Amino acid sequence: MSKDIIAIIRENVIQGRKTQDDIGIDDSLAGTPGVVELTQQALERNISPQGIITEGLTAGMQVVGEKFSTKEYFIPDMLASAEAVGAAMDILKPVLESANVETKGKFAIATVKGDIHDIGKNIVAILLKGAGYEVHDLGTDVPTEQVVEFVREEKPGYLGLSALLTTTMIEMGVVIKALEENKLRSSVKVLVGGAAVSEEFAQEIGADAYCIDAFAAIKVLEGY
Amino acid sequence: MPREGILVDRPYERLTREQVELIHQVSMQILTDPGLISFNREAVDILHGHGAAVESIAGDHQSWQVKIPEQLVLKALDNAPRTVKLGARNPDNTLIMHGDEPRVYFITGSETNIWLDVHFPTYVNKADPTREIRIPEFKPRRGTVDDLCQSAHICEHLEMVDGYIRTVNIQDRDITGDNKDVNKFFASLNNNTKHFMSGLTSLKQLDNVVRMAELIVGGKKALEENPIISFITCLVKSPLQFVDDTTATFIEVCRRGLPVAVSSSPQAGTTAPIKEAGIMAQINAEVLAGITLGQLVKPGTPVLYGSVPVRARMDTLGDSYGSVETSQYNIDCVQMARFYGIPNYSTSGVCDSKIPGQQSSIERLFSDIVVAMSGPQYLHCAFGLLDCNSVFCLLQAVLDDAHFKMIKFFLRQPRIDQPEMEAALKQMRAVVTTPQKLYISYIRPVLRSGEISGIYPFEGSGETDDVFEIAYEQMKDLLARPVEHIDRKITARIFEEIPGLLPRLNVYERGS
After folding, report:
1. A2-98 topology per CATH
2. Residues in chain B closer than 8 A to A77 (CB atoms)
3. How does pLDDT run across B56-76, given as a tens digit for each residue?
4. Mutate to test the interface with B, among A25, A68, A79 (most CBs of B within 10 A)
5. Bridge-based pairing state of the strands B344-347 and B378-380
6. Per DSSP, what are the bridge partners of residue B311?
7. pLDDT digit string (tens) for A50-93?
8. Which of A87, A142, B130, B326 is least surrounded by Cβ atoms within 10 Å, i.e. has the fewest?
């Protein structure tokens, strides 16, 4: 029975159905419970959260990734699946915490001061959450002090900084410098991205990694 | 169900109503003074028998000055069908063209002598021998019947090709003036289930190719109901001359009641005046003269107003299909055909460029877009043609299919109405309350509905231009896909009854 519901969760992840109201990639599952409802049902049946994550959510996302790489799926499909997984992770989080199960890590993300662009940042946030990271989105136009304070207080293992403009990307360097001055730099891996940013720029400001897109971010994180 | 083509809701027009009427009036004047010179005796007799003034040209008993009165032209225009059906081996590929409806069908054509092969040799960077690059090289050669089979085969699978005009002149050693027509018709029909249009090399073969079509569809009456073949005849040579052999062919095609494009191809600067007013009045007069003759031969003959006007290149005085004026003339002709309510056979996409590349893409896309916007019913010449209509390249045809997909999408009618607006408002009100404020989740319901245009299919992944290589791979994939050949029994009958067919074209006998 537990295998059945996990298989259905996996299928719903592949279809990108967060709730029963979502149609999915086709209408074959229309009207049936989505990932959120199924995850709740699974917990009520005392199915282990690790099993739900490994065989249901992660396995589903793996298929989605494969479909994306073969161009069968597009970014909106990937995001729908990631959102479904993210919602399931929100349900599973208290259970995992009470069982002292470690997540993949805490990831803080922000668009730097002076820049209000957030499409890329939001896509990264959704996909990382779907990939199992605990994502804290600090928003746009975030002052350096606020980023430093968050790192000090919440101790994320990873920090993602985004900027679209050549005029604002220099703020990424300011944030990294502030982290050094506050002796926090070694506690957090800093990933940078955005239209104006490049590999060379990332090295110049002392970032740990440059990510051309959300998928590169996941790949970088998996390497740590 | 016939093919849909694309209905251009508000076609682009260059001419005012007054300009259209002026072109018509001057065309009528041209047909009476100077009239046309006919090198075909039968056309002279037919026209004379219906009131045209005819005069033998002094010192030459092989040509006549024919002056066609306006009333004769107007009556012929009344008799010409407003709707022309072009059938197909697969009935789903039928084309229905209404003269007053700007529904565009994208067709191949015309017949070229040269076939362009492509291969991809590898070049090594002298400064860094570890770096290699593959660059396409094109090799021209004379076309063969096998090439024609390949062309018909691939055009069967190209989604945007609505109908097939043979693209390459077959010049094998065993092809003669007498067997060329039957072999080009069979090669095309056997590898393609869309409508097939062609010219004739020899009038003697007309009945053989018509019989071939009858055998395929199931008889004479069946061919009348489903005319899977039609003809192009350039009976008028600019300026203002009925050519002897093509006029004879035209008359015989009309007698058999099969659809026929009355095509004229004046060249502005040499065989027509260099300025727009002159070439337009002349080509219109030439096409009307052909339509008039056809309707006198057999009233109700389905005709297409065929226009292949072109401007001369100033450096060679050859055709310049890539010139901007060529597109303008074609758009004007579409408007003239619509004025008369007769479906239009128009031209776009032929370029001056000799090979696929930037020049080719720019020239062909420019004319493909603007001429398609004007709403011709039968838009020919577009797929694969290069070097002013003298070269055909399969790779270019594959590239063109993607261009036409974009053009067809572009021509779709806008969907702006109350339900759409209500749905949009609902989305906005929902999205602004979400933390990420993105509409992405609303994409999915329309992602696979055909409402979003696709990514350019030959886009490369790196910083090199991979377009040709990716298109070449698709070309090979399409050639590997089977086509629905004429069935074994009918093929056997065709080979029994029609003389001159090359045995190697019989797929059942060669075991492929």
Report:
1. 1.10.1240
2. 444, 447
3. 997 766 899 999 999 999 999
4. A79
5. parallel
6. B268, B320
7. 899 989 998 999 899 899 888 899 889 988 998 899 899 889 98
8. B130
Helix residue ranges per DSSP H, A112-224: 119-130, 144-154, 170-181, 199-205, 214-223
Q: At residue B295, what are phi and psi to the nearest 5 degrees?
A: -75, -25
Nearest to A80 among B436, B437, B444 (CB): B444
Q: How far apart are CA B430 and CA B437, in angstroms?
A: 9
| A122: closest chain B residue by CA | B436
Residues in A lying within 8 Å of B, measured between beta carbons: 16, 23, 25, 74-77, 79-80, 83, 118-119, 122-123, 125-126, 137
- Stated as kind and residue range, the H or E segment containing B386 is strand B385-386
Q: Does domain A106-223 have CATH number 3.30.70.980?
A: no
pLDDT at B141: 96
Dihedral sign for Cα atoms in the order B205, B210, B216, B219: negative
Interface test with B, best of A26, A122, A123 (most B CBs within 10 A): A122
Instruction: Return the residue of A nearest to B440 by Cα.
Output: A76
Chain A residues close to B443, C-beta within 8 Å: 76
> In CATH, which of 3.20.20.60, 3.40.50.1170, 3.20.20.480, 2.40.50.100 is domain B6-16+79-119+136-410?
3.20.20.480
> Residues of A with CB below 8 A from B437's CB?
118
3-class DSSP assignment, residue A57 = helix
Tell me the pLDDT of chain B averaged across its residues.
Answer: 94
| Interchain contact, B440 vs A76, CB within 8 Å | yes
**Which CA distances in Å does B494 have to A224, B196, B209, B497?**
71, 17, 10, 5
Residue B68 and residue B48 in contact, taking contact as beta carbons nearer than 8 Å: no
d(CA A76, CA A78): 5
Which residue type, as a one-letter code, is found at position A18? K
One DSSP character per residue, A78-111 reads: HHHHHHHHHHHHHHHHHHHHHTT---S-EEEEEE
CA–CA separation, A110 and A101 (whole Å): 27
Chain A residues inside the 8 Å CB shell of B438: 119, 122
Residue of A nearest to B448 (CA): A25
User: Which amino acid, one-letter code, is at B509?
Assistant: E
Residues B175-220: pLDDT tens digits?
999 999 999 999 999 999 999 999 999 999 999 999 999 999 999 9
Q: How far, in whole angstroms, is CA A137 from its chain's centroid?
A: 10
Instruction: Give me the residue label for tokens 């746009």.
Output: A140
φ and ψ of A160, to 5 deg:
-105, 130
Q: Where are the domains of chain B?
A: 6-16+79-119+136-410, 418-447
pLDDT tens digit string along B463-480? 778 899 999 999 999 999
What are the sequence ranges of the domains in chain A?
A: 2-98, 106-223
Q: How many CB atoms lie within 10 A of CB B344?
A: 28
First to last CA, chain A: 36
In whole angstroms, give the CA distance from residue B358 to residue B418.
Answer: 43
Closest-approach residue (CA) in chain A for B434: A122
